[in-house]
Specification:
It is built from twelve helices and no strands. It has a domain at 107-325: Ribonucleotide Reductase, subunit A (Orthogonal Bundle). The chain is globular. By secondary structure, the protein is an all-alpha fold.
Amino acid sequence: MSQPEVLKPLKTWSHLAGRRRKPSEYEIVSTNLHFHTDNPDAPFELDPNFEMAQWFKTHRNASPLTHPDWNAFRDPDEMVYRTYNMQQDGQETYVAGLLEQFSARGHDSMLEKTWAGSLARLYTPARYLFHTLQMGSAYLSQMAPASTISNCATYQTADSLRWLSHTAYRTKELSNSFPALGFGRDERGYWEQDAAWQGWRELVERALVAWDWAESFTALNLVVRPAVEEAVLRGLGEAARHNGDTLLGLITDAQLLDAQRHRRWATELVRMALGQPGNLEVMRGWVQKWEPLADKAVAAYCAALPDAPGIGAKATAAAAQFRRGVGL
């Protein structure tokens, strides 16, 4: 009788063996981590008909945007939790240094009251907007079909929280210098009622209920975020500098560094998706659905910015150019 063949045990990280090289730290800690993608019919290896399983089957597995191996996606920055914290600790140290230095110089006391009023109306309510970006990225992190995509969305979620925190900090500082202008009290009223914010509110509230994971990605990363970055970060920062508010201009510049990294991974995911037949038409259809709402939001907000002529058209054109650059 022949002896049964003794199978060699699989090596650690055997799913990366096809690359025929030692896996990088990024590959080891980022790839193939989603246990709920192993069985498409029962995402959580439980009753395939319980509500969460049905949700993932409908809004992820049945998405019209398809690919045979989403796990092949790689973050072009190869960001991992360790390096994210190292990098963003430096970013936060930089922003904290700005806040400390400008406070020591009495920066807010030198601002014109009219510009401070514009900040109360057009800047500090942005914490509501940034929170919606945080929520959208968190949903994408939960729903993405690959852990490498989820990781990018998770870091993006953290960045949105950092933007919100910067805004909240400045809100308190400005309330100390201009107690009569409603800082820390009137932001919700502006967000819910002021004409400058209603386009944003409609855009993000609708985007937050784009349940299909890929439409959520398209709406958030290809339409909403570029519009916010070009209008509320770059446009507001430009208006701030024109009004002697160098601090805000430098803060928005720092936030735009995060936005560049978000665009890099979004660009790579689009490139990967467009390699499959039919995906171009799907994504273009979603862009055509969301782009008019974004353009409307940019126009209304930028029209309210003081001393920023033409910024609305520039912001809209820049966001559209980003989409063209990724093939859409």
